[in-house]
Each structure stands twice: as structure tokens, then as C-alpha cells.
Design goal:
alpha/beta, three-stranded antiparallel beta sheet
Length: about 375
């Protein structure tokens, strides 16, 4: 029997400056594996009183708390610095120069707390022609080179929502950088700046795609290669009822199972399979055959086989059947927190000021009214407090 210990990040204090998507996702990962995450929101009158506030647009708030602090005021900055003196990690979602303009430069923060890890996540690189420009996932994906390889033949490049740059190349890579810095801190005892950008993050994710351009595997124009929609046995096909089946029968023995299930024995020919000139006709045969049955019927045919043919399940039906959402990594001896059933499909969000004063009391013993007070909707240190 495995001895279950505490979650791996338990005891870490994380300060997340409020943003959207990538940095909140990094904070969510840290929170799910045990870290205590406090989001710093802008003051939106009236936080920290008894009137309920609406949650912000940030949906990635599980296990987080919030305080509202005016970082443009000297009193608000003084409170944040007092918190950071005893924090482990600062998550910075801002464009280059914003922290410095608030007199919160990483150099000065590290001088005050040498163990602090400051994770800074930008879209573009901090150097180069795009450094000062605004952008979103599609822009970072575009200048990384990866967007040029995504999409159908004879059509424009097509981004897969904002999964790649914002979340995979942004938030996930940022969390990786934080974990590496934490590992290094165990030997040096010192924190550091973790500098991330989504262009390099998604470019790194696309390493194989970039290398494969130099070999036959991916050396044709967009949409004409093995994994980008060019190959008939690696594609998605509509069914009779409007559902879809995903086909990924790359290897010959999987392809054999596929055409066996489709009852197309005439296609079970290796020479035909490898002949690109035959692919358009083969794709049309696949398309017509899948349209003859419903998705449910095809599921019954291919379930339990090695045809690499699976249904395309939508989020609504997964929610309806109560599919369990799990953390991405299961640490058997030091697991993260399980995702509650109510939080699997819906985010309640987080209103500014929710739970934050309580967290500051747990962390430091600070009390509202004694050590902290409210000024214009934001927390500041009390005049009499010695934080």
C-alpha cells in the first residue's frame, strides 16, 4: 500500500496578479496541487464589505481567494510588498514594463525577498519587433510559425481556439518554469525571475512539426500531409445522424482493422494505401460509408477494436453522463486535490475580495480593522500596523 503524503505544493504562498486565461491557468495548476493562491484584484467598490459582488470574467478560480488592492496608490503597493516579503511565488500577467511602472520591479522585489520566484508571462518576446505590441493567442501562434501549418488545404490557416498559445504554450509552460525554479531553490535557497512568452512556448511545442518539414512526413503544403488533414485515414468523418467519428489508423495493422470494420476489404492493400494518388477516392469511400450509419452504430462496431476509430464526444453529452474530470497528473504518494463534481463543468468564478482577508489571517495573522483597513474599495495597511 502506498503511503499518501501531503500534496506536493502544500504550504506555498502564491500571489496572482489578476489577468485572464494563461496566468490564471498557471495559478489553477498550482492551486490544484496544494498551493495557496491569492489573487490581487483591482478595487471595484465596494469589495471587502457585506454587499455581494459579481465575479470577474476569470473562470479559472478553483481553490483561490481574492483581495482588492489599488496598485496605483503607494498604500496599495506597500501592502503588496508586505505580502510578497513572505510569499513564495508572484504571477505577473502584464505586458513588459508594467510592473516597473508600478515601482514593483523584479530586481527590487528580489532584493527584499531573495527566495521569491517571479513568473512573468507575456505574449510576444520581450525583445524583437513585437515586444511593445498588444496581441492575443492567434497573434502569438501566427508569429511562432505554427499557425502556418494548421488548417485545410486551399484554405487559410486555422487556429484551434486559444488552446495552443494561451494555455499550452503560455500557462502550462509558465507552471513548468515555476516548478523548475522551485526545484533549483531547494539547492540554492534563492528565488529568481521566470521569464515566459507564448511565442517561444508554442514554438517549442511545435518542435516536431518544425523538424518534420525537412522530411517526407510533413514536407508538403498545409493540409496535404499525414497529420494535418491530408491523409484519409487520419481525419474526421460525419455520420448519418450528424455526429462524427475520428479516424487515426496510421499503422498498417490499425488500418486493416479500420477497413475491416467499414466493410471495405478492397482497400486493405498496402500499395494502394501508400499511393497518394489514390487518397482522394479513398477519402470519398470513407465519407460515404460513414454516412450510412449513425455515430452510435459506428461506436458499437469499433468499440474494443484497434482500428483507432472513436466518436467525437461533445462537452454537453459528457456533462450529461457525469464524466469525472481528473487532474492531468496523478501523483500516487502525494496527490493533488480531486476536482469536485460541482466544479467539473461549471465555474462559480471569484468576486474581488472573496476569501482574501481570511487567507491573510491564516498566512500572517493579519486582521481586518486591526492590521488592515479599506480605502476606496481596496485594502491597505492600517496606520498602526507593523506588518
Amino acid at each position: 500500500m502506498v503511503e499518501v503524503r501531503k500534496s506536493p505544493l502544500e504550504g506555498l504562498r502564491v500571489i496572482e496578479l489578476a489577468g485572464l486565461a494563461p496566468v490564471p491557468f498557471a495559478g489553477l495548476l498550482l492551486a490544484d496541487y496544494g498551493a495557496s493562491v491569492l489573487r490581487i484584484d483591482r478595487p471595484l467598490p465596494p469589495p471587502h464589505d457585506r454587499k455581494p459582488l459579481r465575479p470577474t470574467a476569470d473562470l479559472l478560480t478553483r481553490r483561490k481567494s481574492s483581495v482588492a488592492v489599488n496598485l496605483k496608490s503607494s498604500e496599495g503597493r506597500a501592502l503588496l510588498i508586505a505580502i510578497l516579503l513572505r510569499a513564495d511565488i508572484l504571477l505577473d500577467p502584464f505586458r513588459p514594463g508594467v510592473l516597473e511602472s508600478l515601482s514593483l520591479s523584479p530586481h527590487e522585489l528580489l532584493a527584499k525577498n531573495p527566495r521569491l520566484i517571479i513568473a512573468r508571462l507575456t505574449g510576444f518576446r520581450r525583445d524583437g519587433p513585437y515586444a511593445a505590441m498588444a496581441g492575443h493567442d492567434i497573434n502569438y501562434l501566427a508569429v511562432s510559425g505554427i499557425l502556418s501549418q494548421l488548417g485545410r488545404a486551399n484554405g487559410p490557416p486555422y487556429p484551434p481556439a486559444n488552446i495552443l498559445a494561451d494555455f499550452a504554450g503560455g500557462g502550462l509552460m509558465c507552471a513548468l518554469g515555476i516548478l523548475l525554479a522551485l526545484l533549483e531553490r531547494t539547492t540554492s535557497g534563492k528565488g529568481q525571475v521566470v521569464d515566459n512568452n507564448m511565442v517561444d512556448g508554442v514554438g517549442y511545442l511545435g518542435s516536431m512539426m518544425r523538424f518534420a518539414r525537412k522530411i517526407e512526413f510533413w514536407n508538403r503544403p498545409r493540409g496535404q500531409n499525414l497529420l494535418d488533414g491530408g491523409c484519409p485515414w487520419y481525419d474526421v468523418y460525419p455520420c448519418k445522424d450528424g455526429g462524427h467519428m475520428a479516424v487515426g489508423a496510421l499503422e498498417p495493422h490499425f488500418f486493416h482493422r479500420l477497413v475491416q470494420g467499414l466493410e471495405l476489404p478492397e482497400l486493405d492493400n498496402s500499395a494502394l494505401r501508400e499511393d497518394r494518388a489514390s487518397w482522394p477516392a479513398m477519402r470519398e469511400q470513407f465519407r460515404r460509408r460513414f454516412l450510412e450509419k449513425t455515430r452510435y452504430e459506428w461506436e458499437n462496431i469499433f468499440n474494443g477494436t484497434d482500428a483507432c476509430c472513436t466518436p467525437v464526444l461533445d462537452q454537453r453529452e459528457l456533462e450529461d453522463i457525469g464524466k469525472e474530470q481528473r487532474l492531468p497528473v496523478d501523483l500516487q504518494a502525494s496527490p493533488g486535490f480531486p476536482i469536485d463534481e460541482k466544479q467539473s463543468w461549471t465555474s462559480a468564478g471569484l468576486a474581488p475580495g472573496t476569501g482574501g482577508p481570511e487567507i491573510l489571517y491564516q498566512w500572517f495573522g493579519w486582521k481586518l480593522g486591526r492590521d488592515l483597513q479599506i480605502e476606496e474599495g481596496g485594502l491597505i495597511k492600517s496606520n498602526a500596523a507593523k506588518l
